[in-house]
Structures are given as structure tokens and as C-alpha cells.
Design brief:
Elements: H1 5-14, E1 27-32, H2 33-36, E2 53-61, E3 64-72, E4 82-86, H3 88-96, H4 102-112, E5 115-119, H5 123-128, H6 132-137
Parallel strand pairs: 1-4
Antiparallel strand pairs: 1-2, 2-3, 4-5
Length: about 150
């Protein structure tokens, strides 16, 4: 689903500058929309994942962003600050464009509706954790009313 994790890690290493302000332990996750059952228009409380599905987790550790595969069992048990939910087209596009400017690709896919995002911290918590530059790079110019 996510392909070779070393390619994702190389992309994160190239984008290292965006993550320098983020505090250790900050985490983002990517899951497949189809596999997770998270659909547009559903309240997050109403979304239940019947089985665990793969999640690509990005975490700040040792001064940089690391990528790995973990299990995702639903929004209520998610241990991420930001969750990106990508449809099949988005997943295919991201894999095809891993060698390029992935953050620009993700930004484009968010604007087209191929990627939804969920925030699990409020605006102040995200700012304190150093997410501002990263979220702005995705075109989420620092979210006015995080919930």
C-alpha cells in the first residue's frame, strides 16, 4: 500500500528543514480511505474501523522525521497529532511522485479532496509542538479554528 519505506524516508530527509521546529514525539499518520472506512461527511465519532489497517506514521525522533508502518485501529485509539486519509488515487499519485516534491503533491491532493485530514490537537497545542511551517506548506495556512 505504501511501498518501500526507504523511499519515504529519503523524501522526509530531503524535506528535513520543514520539521526542525517540531518537538520530539510529534506524529503524523497516513491511512487509506478505502481500507479505514473513513469517508467524507462522517463525524469522527461515527467512524469505526472493524479491523486494523496499515498506517504510515511519521514521527520526530533523534532530531529528524522518521517513517514506519504501524497498525491503525480507528480514530479513537489513534496516537497521532494529524491524520491524513488518502483515497486510492492519492495513494497511487504519492507513490509515483515520491522522488519529487511530495509536500506539493500532498497539498494538491488535499485541495482536490483526495486527502482528508483530522487534527487531534487544538491550534495552540499544534503551534507549541512546531507544526505551523509544516501545515502551511500543505496549504493549511495556519488553521483558524482547530477542533
Amino acid at each position: 500500500m505504501f511501498g518501500d519505506m526507504s523511499r519515504w524516508q529519503s523524501m522526509l530527509d530531503r524535506q528535513r528543514e520543514l520539521f526542525v521546529e517540531m518537538e520530539s514525539g510529534s506524529r503524523l499518520g497516513f491511512v487509506s480511505r478505502e481500507a479505514s472506512g473513513i469517508l467524507p461527511g462522517k463525524h469522527r465519532e461515527g467512524v469505526q474501523v472493524v479491523t486494523e489497517v496499515p498506517m504510515m506514521a511519521w514521527e520526530i525522533e533523534n532530531g529528524g522525521m522518521s517513517a514506519r508502518i504501524e497498525r491503525f485501529a480507528g480514530l479513537a485509539t489513534s496516537r497521532v497529532d494529524v491524520l491524513l486519509v488518502a483515497d486510492r488515487e492519492a495513494m497511487d499519485t504519492m507513490l509515483a511522485e515520491l522522488g519529487g516534491d511530495m509536500l506539493r503533491t500532498i497539498k494538491r491532493l488535499i485541495r482536490r479532496g483526495n486527502i482528508m485530514f483530522f487534527l487531534f490537537k487544538n491550534k495552540t497545542q499544534l503551534q507549541d509542538a512546531g507544526y505551523e511551517d509544516f501545515l502551511e506548506s500543505l496549504g493549511l495556512a495556519f488553521i483558524g479554528a482547530c477542533r
